[in-house]
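hiii so um. not sure if this is the right channel but i have a protein structure encoded as tokens and i wanna go backwards to a sequence. like what aa goes where. can anyone help
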């Protein structure tokens, strides 16, 4: 049985008979990282899953694809039987009490007994707050094209504001996958990091938008927004990355140059780095109010409207176009340098910023 890894593999892992293929991020572990870390655990799960497929799927085979759930169900079960001998002995621990550590911005949970070294799941019911300080999940007022005041909800989580929305390991070196669902009015568009999986209609005139699981990423890159947006779109030369620019109603055409710049940068990175850009969708939102120039959230870049949208009536056309191109190039480069290739801690922020700044030019 041979196992190989490649830098980017669209399916993450594949159980081919005698030759299993993995994407690098799901297979390699830094020798300095402890073997009981979350990343090591995830690697062990994937390995157990694919090895189990040599029995459930390769030897014991389904008749047709509508029975795919059967082989996947067995292998998913074997993941946990192999990794944890106590998985079948399910036990629920009730929280005795919890304590807020205000300075550390952490929560301490007290359990009734000492736990052995084992992987456990934690379920926390929580309620986040909507802020007005442009951090975390915030409400942003703006005027539409007719001068009416509107409100948009958006996120800005870098560097340590994800914890204001949901409990998490809010540090850049703790990567995870996120499964997000957003409930909004049926006439609104809700955007997040991943593609839409399905939409559930609600009885109160709302809809629940369920997204696919995200790639492994740091918590500060989670993003979601909601409003009655409109968009323009295009694709890269090889057709593998769909690029969109979202704006509030009546301003989509102003995003044409930003869209062209985004597509051009992805095409350039594919050629320069001799690789396939790893994202199948890249959305760029021109937010009416955004405190920073732009933010490189995975697959959902949020920019200030003034840095992404182009008004033909501007007095300095050349300077404006250059500014948009630099911002877009910087944030698109961050999808690789920062989001996939990541720093351990914030004192290494300069590294991802320097790579992104280099690719601006």
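sure thing!! here u go:
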């Amino acid at each position: 049985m041979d196992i190989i890894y490649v830098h980017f593999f669209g399916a993450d892992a594949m159980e081919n008979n005698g030759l299993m293929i993995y994407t690098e991020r799901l297979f390699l572990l830094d020798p300095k990282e402890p073997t009981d870390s979350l990343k090591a655990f995830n690697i062990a799960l994937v390995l157990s899953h694919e090895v189990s497929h040599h029995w459930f799927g390769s030897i014991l085979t389904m008749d047709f694809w509508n029975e795919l759930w059967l082989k996947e169900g067995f292998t998913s079960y074997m993941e946990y039987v192999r990794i944890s001998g106590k998985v079948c002995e399910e036990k629920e621990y009730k929280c005795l009490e919890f304590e807020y550590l205000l300075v550390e911005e952490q929560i301490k949970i007290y359990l009734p007994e000492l736990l052995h070294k084992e992987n456990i799941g934690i379920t926390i019911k929580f309620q986040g707050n909507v802020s007005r300080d442009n951090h975390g999940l915030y409400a942003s007022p703006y005027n539409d094209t007719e001068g009416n005041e509107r409100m948009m909800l958006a996120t800005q989580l870098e560097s340590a504001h994800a914890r204001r929305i949901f409990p998490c390991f809010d540090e850049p070196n703790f990567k995870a996958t996120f499964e997000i669902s957003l409930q909004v009015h049926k006439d609104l568009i809700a955007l997040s990091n991943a593609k839409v999986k399905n939409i559930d209609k609600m009885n109160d005139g709302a809809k629940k938008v369920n997204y696919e699981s995200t790639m492994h990423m740091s918590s500060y890159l989670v993003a979601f927004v909601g409003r009655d947006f409109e968009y323009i779109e295009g694709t890269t030369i090889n057709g593998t990355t769909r690029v969109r620019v979202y704006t509030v109603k009546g301003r989509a055409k102003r995003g044409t140059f930003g869209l062209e710049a985004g597509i051009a940068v992805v095409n350039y990175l594919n050629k320069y780095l001799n690789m396939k850009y790893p994202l199948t969708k890249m959305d760029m939102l021109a937010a009416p109010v955004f405190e920073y120039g732009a933010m490189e959230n995975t697959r959902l870049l949020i920019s200030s409207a003034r840095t992404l949208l182009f008004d033909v009536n501007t007095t300095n056309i050349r300077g404006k176009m250059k500014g948009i191109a630099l911002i877009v190039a910087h944030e698109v480069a961050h999808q690789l340098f920062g989001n996939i290739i990541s720093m351990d801690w914030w004192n290494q922020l300069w590294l991802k910023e320097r790579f992104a700044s280099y690719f601006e030019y």
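oh and The first helix runs from residue 38 to 52.
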